[in-house]
Amino acid sequence: QSALTQPASASGSPGQSITISCTGSSSDVGGYNYVSWYQQHPGKAPKVMIYEVSNRPSGVSYRFSGSKSGNTASLTISGLQAEDEADYYCSSYTSTSTLVVFGGGTKLTVL
Amino acid sequence: EVQLLESGGALVQPGGSLRLSCAASGFTFTTYAMAWVRQAPGKGLEWVSGISGGGGSSTYYADSVKGRFTISRDNSRNSLYVQMKSLRAEDTAVYYCAKFACTGGVCHFDYWGQGTLVTVSS
Description:
The complex is a heterodimer. Chain A is an all-beta fold. Chain A is built from no helices and 9 strands. Chain A is 0% helix and 42% strand. In chain A, the strands form 2 sheets. In chain A, strands 1, 3, 4, 7, 8 and 9 form a 6-stranded mixed beta sheet that branches. Chain A has a 3-stranded antiparallel beta sheet with strand order 2-6-5, with no helix packed on it. Chain A is globular, with a radius of gyration of 13 Å. Chain A starts with 8 loop residues before the first strand and ends with a strand. Chain B is mainly β. Chain B has strands spanning 3-7, 11-12, 18-25, 34-39, 45-51, 59-61, 69-74, 79-84, 93-103, 106-112, 116-120. In chain B, strands 2, 4, 5, 6, 9, 10 and 11 form a 7-stranded mixed beta sheet that branches. Chain B is globular, with a radius of gyration of 14 Å. The mean pLDDT of chain B is 95.
């Protein structure tokens, strides 16, 4: 069982917007602005899409955005494109001794 | 260009040991904290272990590997390691080496290697 809870799957049509949630606790998501999101295509290494809740690395499309409310962080992808089809993972700092926790991942399907 | 190249993955029997290596290039290795993250076949990402930059005086472990895995670094060789012992079937996974990027104490993984496969089976 993952420390952070994500929906197992999500789907949307090209051009639509979709939001993926990531729910934790006050020990991780809710307590710190250390949430990051990673995209992983099959057989590939993960790639950071959002860090520090809402910052976008250079080279990542503006269509990707992040936010947080309480113990839940969210990744929103606007103007869905076929290339967005991938697995998405959230991650957060945790005040427990382990340091980092991941969500279970969300498989995004572009219909 | 930042590159992280893992090696050392293999088929090992339950109870056995293995050491993974990660050769880093394209950045000042000693400056950055590093980590290992694994992914079991068909499963999600799982935090394994992390080590601070510099001398690596601070180390962190997932509860699932604590006491069995030891992370270390050799800055003279620009390399990260994880020594794994008492391996179990549930340790079977692709192990990724990842570089931390930190700003004011807030960190995320900005680069990942391509991974090395560890299979624990008799």
